[in-house]
Amino acid sequence: LLQPKKRPGIYVIHIAAEMAPVAKVGGLGDVLTGLSRSLQRKGHLVEAILPKYDCMDYSRISNLKELDLELHSSFDGQTHKNKVWSGIVEGLPVYFIEPLHPAKFFWRGQFYSEPDDFRRFTYFCRAAMEFLLQSGKRPDIIHSHDWQTAVVAPLYWDVFVPLGLDSARLAFTCHNFEYQGAENSGAIAACGLSPQTLMRPDRMQDNSHHNKINLLKGGVVFSNVVTTVSPTYAQEVLRPEGGKGLHGTLGVHSKKFFGVLNGIDQEVWDPATDTLIDCQYSAHDIDGKFVNKQRLRERLGLASEGEDERRPLVGCVTRLVPQKGVHLIRHAIYRTLEKGGQFILLGSSPVPHIQHEFEGIARQFENHPQIRLVLKYDEALSHAIYAASDIFVIPSIFEPCGLTQMISMRYGTIPVVRRTGGLADSVFDVDDERNPEEKKNGFVFDDANEGSLNWGLDRALDYYSQRPEWWQDLVKKAMLIDFSWDTSADQYVDLYKQVLSKANA
Ligand code: ADP
């Protein structure tokens, strides 16, 4: 076990449900790895604790080994055994908890969407905290993320501080307020917390369903510092439309609540070194981008010769959930076709009726020369699409941060986005005179309707066709924007330091 006595930096342990590339469903996974690597480069000691899912990408974990330690943790009033594994993911030390519980909590072939998710993750949090206690780890900061690990904060104060695990301050990041983990109040007792004490409006009682306990709210109330993933989203969730029931709670705790824009891992997402794309390129030599476009067209059976060669290629890589504006994504496909462009969608949906609807559209365009829908999760294909596309659409209804607009720009693909959350903090319309010239980098529309989307998408398609040199300059400019974690990680360090100095005072 890594047990440094003296160190110059801050000792941070993340407890989370995702970590790219081994266990990634969405942006949370990218953030955990990107932020941690950046903190590590700045001299801090960062570790992570994850469930040991059966469906992880084990090929991306090095030195995976079982620790010589029997971890006991309590659940449903009984003691259960767990195995703990250590491994290295992208240079970061990670501990994986494998419960030896008859319910086989992380042996389900998928990360989420199991009927007992509340139990799976409250079990995991309890075991993760037991691991800290029993292994003698004493981090400065315990950083938990989203509803799945929000219960770490109340567990810390109510159960583990009395047991002597009291070195830490608690940081909590909410990556999306839509998912809150609300359950009948008794369910919280399984991990050792008291429903009677916590079922109060100023603690963990759900603000809308008063018989439910709300894990996300517990993370907000009981952590020393709470962040979300962009400044604009941090404002939006303080309002009733954005807070999904938690705006009041966030208002009460607004002094410890901050919006820090995510970065992207610029080493993972780098067209100059990316081995998942056909031809590497950089802002200084963007010819390779066109090679990628031609190869992807050939691979997916889109028209690529003669007149077709000049068509703009519009890409979209997304989870197909209502938040992402699925009706507008569908509309963008038809609009692009009408305007003479090509469209590639890579997406998959956990919502059966949405998946079904898009399967219908995919069939409609099965052998179409200009449109292709690939309805699955495919990391390698996502890289190829970022590299090959000219334009990228993100018509989200709300978007806490969004990474795909930043990844697109890094690959010289110009985003068309709705002005919401982190999209509003990272994409600045080329035609909006309020934006300083050096910031202009894409196309922004305001309303979640087809007309508004058309206004953004049409301008992008028209500029691409009518002003090719201007477009090339825009591509180069977008590629040179710094979306690294560097600045954002500094903001996290400042917040960690603030709560640590308050604790010392
Ligand atoms: P969210 O976390 O809401 O899904 P983000 O924009 O923050 O959205 O992060 C999405 C991440 O997941 C990006 O790295 C994107 O490339 C990736 N992604 C989304 N859907 C797919 C898919 N079908 N195949 C591969 N990668 C995907």
* Coarse structural class: alpha/beta
The fraction of residues assigned to DSSP E strands is: 15-25%
- The CATH topology assignment of the largest domain is Rossmann fold
Radius of gyration: 23 Å
Q: Based on DSSP secondary structure assignment, what is the total number of beta strands?
A: 18
**Helix-residue proportion:** 25-40%
Q: Largest sheet at a glance? A: 10 strands, mixed
Number of self-contained structural domains: 2
How far apart lie the N and C ends?
31 Å
Uncertain runs: none
Shape: globular
In round numbers, the mean pLDDT is 96
CATH class of the largest domain: Alpha Beta
Task: Give the ligands present.
Answer: adenosine-5'-diphosphate
CATH superfamily of the largest domain: Glycogen Phosphorylase B
Number of helices: 18
Which CATH architecture of the largest domain would you pick? 3-Layer(aba) Sandwich
Written overview of the protein:
With 505 residues, the protein is α/β, with parallel strands linked by helices. It folds into two domains: 12-263 and 486-504, Rossmann fold (3-Layer(aba) Sandwich); 287-479, 3-Layer(aba) Sandwich (Rossmann fold). Helix content is 38%, strand content 19%. It has 18 helices and 18 strands. The protein has helices at 27-41, 117-135, 146-150, 152-163, 195-198, 215-222, 231-236, 240-243, 247-252, 287-300, 326-338, 352-364, 379-388, 404-410, 421-426, 450-466, 468-479, 486-504; strands spanning 11-15, 45-51, 62-66, 71-75, 78-89, 92-99, 141-145, 169-174, 182-184, 212-214, 225-228, 257-259, 313-319, 342-348, 371-374, 391-394, 414-418, 443-445. The strands form three sheets. Strands 1, 2, 3, 4, 5, 6, 7, 8, 11 and 12 form a ten-stranded mixed sheet that branches. The protein has a six-stranded parallel sheet with strand order 15-14-13-16-17-18, sandwiched between helices. It has a two-stranded antiparallel ribbon with strand order 9-10. A hairpin with a 2-residue loop joins strand 5 and strand 6. Helix 1 (27-41) packs across helix 18 (486-504), helix 4 crosses helix 6 (215-222) and helix 10 (287-300) crosses helix 13 (379-388). The chain is globular. The model has no long low-confidence stretch (mean pLDDT 96). It binds adenosine-5'-diphosphate. Adenosine-5'-diphosphate binds next to helix 1, strand 13, strand 14 and helix 13.
